[in-house]
Write a structure and sequence with these properties.
350 residues; alpha/beta; 2 domains; seven-stranded mixed β-sheet; 24% helix; binds NADP nicotinamide-adenine-dinucleotide phosphate; binds zinc ion
């Protein structure tokens, strides 16, 4: 009923990632078996390996930006065939019948969605193991079609960084002419800039790294705002229609709240941990809002992929060998990623 495959994972919160063997279930009637070609490296992988959010289950095999080829399908699968190029993001299952699932918002499944890694594994017991591995078996409802017009390796990050930025931009109806700020030029941020630009917004990259200014403009930002420069920050006060905040740790909120216009919203996607206390007056004075957003549903993810196929939007990546993953993690931690690492999974095979 199971196959042993190769993977890379961490034995505990302090351990480096190392080669290991893991089990995959055999392809069931509703399943798609995928040979993984590429897997993106999300900052969430690092948070989980290092137990930043508590509750990590070891070994952690991270990876939720998966692109690969279908090698087998179950008898109930009609949408996919052997040889298809497909993707898997942050979810591999959900209840499929609660109000959120019915609305195509499986990420908010009221009975708890199954994450691609570190969730309860309903099939094999134990916990789910992600895409830093040679293959994966996934329920057909959680498999995405990858447009054949875009580069598969640069498409992998769309499965998390892409949808996590696309979903709030669409939900808050970012449109032509809006002044949109994207905070943090990393994996999520660089996709946020590309999407906000493609939606016709006036995009301002808000960064702590002045040396990323040129890249930010090349990615589609119209202006760059250095958040450590208080004079510059003051000039942009009360001027943003929408801000997407990808900062990966708790941080001071007041300087960013001050940037919002009356009635405007800042959406947090990065800091899944306590924030520094902020002043209520900053919100009350301008009827401003702070909101949060988690990845995106399957339907919306397919829409985003199709949009990317049509407009030729992919991630800017550095392709790495599996064996260099621990160095890549160190570079993500010091904000030195340009702008997503993607693992070439061929380097894990014999
Ligand atoms: P990343 O590649 O490390 O990018 C984060 C960027 O934030 C950095 O490059 C840096 O950009 C900026 N930054 C880092 N530390 C900062 C600090 N202390 N203060 C201000 N800015 C800081 O990370 P990522 O993969 O984009 O992920 C970002 C966060 O989103 C992570 O916490 C991840 O776990 C989370 N996430 C959430 C979801 C969701 O569904 N909500 C999905 C995926 C990921 P500059 O150099 O430009 O300042
Ligand atoms: Zn992610």
């Amino acid at each position: 009923m199971k196959t042993i495959i190769k993977a890379y994972g961490a034995a505990d919160a302090k351990a480096d990632l190392k080669p290991m063997s893991i089990e995959r279930r055999n392809c069931g009637d509703d399943d798609v078996k995928i040979d993984i070609m590429y897997c993106g490296v999300c900052h969430s992988d690092i948070h989980t390996v290092r137990n930043d959010w508590k509750g990590s289950k070891y070994p952690v095999v991270p990876g939720h930006e998966i692109v690969g080829k279908v090698v087998e399908v179950g008898k109930n699968v009609t949408k996919f065939r052997q040889g298809d190029l497909v993707g898997v993001g942050c979810m591999v299952d959900s209840c499929q019948h609660c109000a959120s699932c019915e609305e195509g918002l499986e990420q908010y499944c009221e009975n708890g969605m199954t994450g691609t890694y570190n969730s309860k594994d309903k099939h094999l017991g134990g916990h789910t193991l992600g895409g830093y591995s040679t293959s994966i078996v996934v329920n057909k409802e959680f498999v995405l079609s990858i447009p054949d017009t875009i580069d598969p390796k640069a498409t992998a990050p769309l499965l998390c960084a892409g949808i996590t930025t696309w979903s709030p931009l669409r939900h808050w109806n970012v449109k032509k002419g809006d002044k949109v700020g994207v905070i943090g030029l990393g994996g999520l941020g660089h996709m946020g800039v590309k999407f906000a630009n493609a939606l016709g917004a006036h995009v301002v990259m808000i960064t702590t790294s002045p040396d990323k200014s040129k890249d930010a403009k090349a990615l589609g930002a119209h202006e760059v705002l250095i958040s450590k420069n208080m004079d510059e920050m003051r000039k942009h006060k009360n001027s943003f229609d929408f801000i997407l905040n990808t900062i990966p740790v708790g941080h001071e909120m007041d300087p960013y709240i001050a940037l919002l216009k009356r009635d405007a919203t800042m959406v947090l996607v990065g800091a899944i941990e306590p924030l520094k206390p902020f002043h209520g007056g900053g919100l009350i004075g301008g009827r401003k809002r702070i909101a949060g957003s988690l990845i995106g549903g399957i339907k919306e993810t397919q829409e985003m992929l199709d949009f990317c196929g049509k407009h030729n939007i992919v991630s800017d990546i550095e392709l790495i060998d599996m064996s260099t993953i621990n160095d890549a993690y160190e570079r993500v931690i010091i904000s030195d990623v340009k702008y997503r690492f993607v693992i070439d999974m061929a380097t894990l095979k014999d």
